[in-house]
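Please produce the structure of this protein holding adenosine-5'-triphosphate.
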Amino acid sequence: MKGYVQVYTGNGKGKTTAAFGQALRAAGAGLRVFIAQFVKGMEYSEHKAMERFSDLITIKQYGRDCFINREPTEKDIRAAKQGYDDVAEIIRSGDYQMVILDEANIAVYYNLFSARDLVALIDMKPEDLELVITGRYADPIVLERADLVTEMLEVRHYYHQGVEARKGIEK
Ligand code: ATP
Ligand code: MG
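Below is the modeled complex.
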């Protein structure tokens, strides 16, 4: 089956959860899924949920935390580059039918690797691999290469009322 490149971006809620929903659906069809999470380092409830599908879904994190309010450090950059190399190998291996690069757009936004590097991953994708890229601020050259782009539009978000990420809902 031919695989396409999907990008979930925009400021509204639903990018990462859409990607995990896609992983769940893929696993239901017996597809093997690799999820790489850039920038993120903490444990999310979705990891625990996905443990139930560990025969088909593999998750790896390549970050320390959500550094939305600070400059990335050398350590953040090294973690992202390690992730990039791992993902390149995973993509080329042909062992997975779906690869999800969660917050890869954010990694580019913070210059952990370049938009061209991300496009290079798209270029090395086997024909039958579905590649899903999430994160705000998707780079135009990445969008250009995507077959599907969904922009989550923030009409309203309780974050602005001071509601921080809640366990089971955002984390
Ligand atoms: P989800 O994981 O629920 O699908 P998402 O992947 O679309 O959400 P991200 O951009 O990854 O959302 O946001 C991660 C976190 O940033 C959220 O848990 C939330 O607490 C916070 N956040 C969400 N919206 C905003 C906003 N408009 N401004 C600042 N922070 C926000
Ligand atoms: Mg997200």
